[in-house]
Amino acid sequence: MSPKRMLSRRNFLRCAAAIAAGAAVSRGKAWAQGEEPSTSPGIGSQVPMPGFIPGHIRYRGGRWQEYPTAMASLLEEVRKRTSIIAGPEAGGGDLSSPELFEFPFLYLSGRYEFEMPKEKEIDRLRRHLTYGGFLLIDDGLGLVNEGFGRTARELVRRLYPREALEPLPTDHAMFKSYYLIRSIGGRQAVSQELEGIHLGRFTPVVFCRNDLAGAWARRPDGGWIEGCSPGGEPQRKAAFHLGVNIVLYAMTGNYKQDLIHHPIIQRRLNQG
After folding, report:
1. 174-191, pLDDT tens digit by residue?
2. Partner of 143 at 20 to 30 A CA spacing, among 12, 14, 31, 91?
3. Gap between the Cα atoms of 6 and 16, Å rounded
4. How far apart are CA 62 and CA 53, in angstroms?
């Protein structure tokens, strides 16, 4: 993982409350008028926006990057729709990379079975998530007991042997961190549920079976690489909305439930 700009966890958290407040204000007027929100308002010069760059996890075996343009396409949408200054593309590296902890947002994707990471690598990933990191698992095949899904679920089981992936409730903050999510999009429509691992009030691991990357990926000429079935373009739009929400959730956590505490949080951030 070696992008030119990387976001430290400290800066990531310092800006979370400000981004949360901005997103909430911008959506309020648009939703009240029945419109789709376009961008969150500028936070102003008082709070500098960080460069958001996710880390795409490489693994052995299988194919870790089925759609090389998918994350760049999502990041473009994040820049367009929010105040977040996102990088042009994701960084890449395996779980043994010394730069792992410089990426608060990690992304694991694929369609095929892959080699299980070594125990030390799993320990490093667990530590990353324990200290506030976030992992999105994007299953391009969507089968529970075959291919990528089988191996990814086993990885989650080894990460958290005492926890289990569970469907996120419909009132989870992830479904309202920017857009109001009413359907789970993707290249395919295998499931209308997101699954997650909950640690306290935060959900650091989220599992989607609908192949989000397949819906995000573009060709060099700007067209879409894959069609979305059976819902067509509305299904693709839902995939982008969900992707933006997941990024906002990773940065702001449960701010929708905790917004009453924002003035206190902001004062503490201003004190350094």
Report:
1. 999 999 999 999 999 999
2. 91
3. 16
4. 24
End-to-end CA gap in the chain? 29
Tens digit of pLDDT for each residue in 129-160? 999 999 999 999 999 899 999 999 999 999 99
Strands (E) located in the chain: 51-52, 55-57, 85-86, 91-93, 105-110, 134-139, 166-167, 195-199, 202-208
Distance CA 19, CA 83 (A): 7
In eight-state DSSP terms, residue 257 is: H
- Looking at the whole model, is its pTM more than 0.85? no
Residue type, position 75, single letter: L
DSSP 174: G
| Among candidate residues 190, 215, 236, the one with its CA nearest the CA of residue 70 | 215
Q: What is the DSSP string of 30-58?
A: HHHTTPPP--PPP--TTSPPPEE--EEEP
Domains (range + CATH), the chain:
9-270 (3.40.50.12140)
> Strands of 166-167's sheet, edge to edge?
91-93, 55-57, 105-110, 134-139, 202-208, 195-199, 166-167
| 8-state DSSP, 117 | P
User: pLDDT at position 129, please?
Assistant: 96
Structure confidence by residue, pLDDT tens digits, 13-62? 444 444 444 443 333 333 223 334 333 333 233 444 447 999 999 999 99
Write down the pLDDT at residue 255: 57
Whole-angstrom distance, CA of residue 47 vs CA of residue 45: 6
